[in-house]
From TrEMBL:
The lineage of its organism: Bacteria, Bacillati, Cyanobacteriota, Cyanophyceae, Oscillatoriophycideae. InterPro entries: TACO1_YebC-like_2nd/3rd_dom, Transcrip_reg_TACO1-like, Transcrip_reg_TACO1-like_dom3, YebC-like. It holds the Pfam family Transcrip_reg. It comes from Zarconia navalis LEGE 11467. This is YebC/PmpR family DNA-binding transcriptional regulator. Transmembrane segments: none annotated. Residues 8-167 form the TACO1/YebC-like second and third domain.
Amino acid sequence: FGGGSNDFEAIRYEGYGPGGVAILVEALTDNRNRTAADLRAAFSKNGGNLGETGCVSWMFDRKGMVEIAGTVDEEKLLEVSLDGGAESYELLEGEDAQGAEVICEANDLERLSQALQGGDFSVVQAELRWIPTTTMEVTDTERARSLLKLMDALEESDDVQNVTANFEMGDELISQMLE
């Protein structure tokens, strides 16, 4: 981004949340020390710990994800996705969303996106994501609240671009928390 004192660098921070949940934080910063201090404070105030590089990244794979919107012909999706190098897909069917998320190796993202567009699918976004290789099921409402509070605190930092964690919550727990 040019020369001078306003150079930004992409940095990945790693840490643990309540209950040992693995958390990856991607940041774009012009001041590593400020960002590290902000994230360390967010982790410690919310029951987590900022860790060393490599402490949790081994629990995630870098993958390509293409999101498509609209009604999906699953047979056509499968055929086009395989031709585009996809590994898996998940249909999205909810009150607000219809479509699918299609996952591929990071190197196949452009190929997959173009294949889906060529197959007349409406591509909403194509991006690289960290996907957990294993997940932890959170069943306790207090731990769930703590984790969500930590995730929010991390995302509030101006330098943070993305926060990924390896926990899952069941629909029942989410509805209990909304009550």
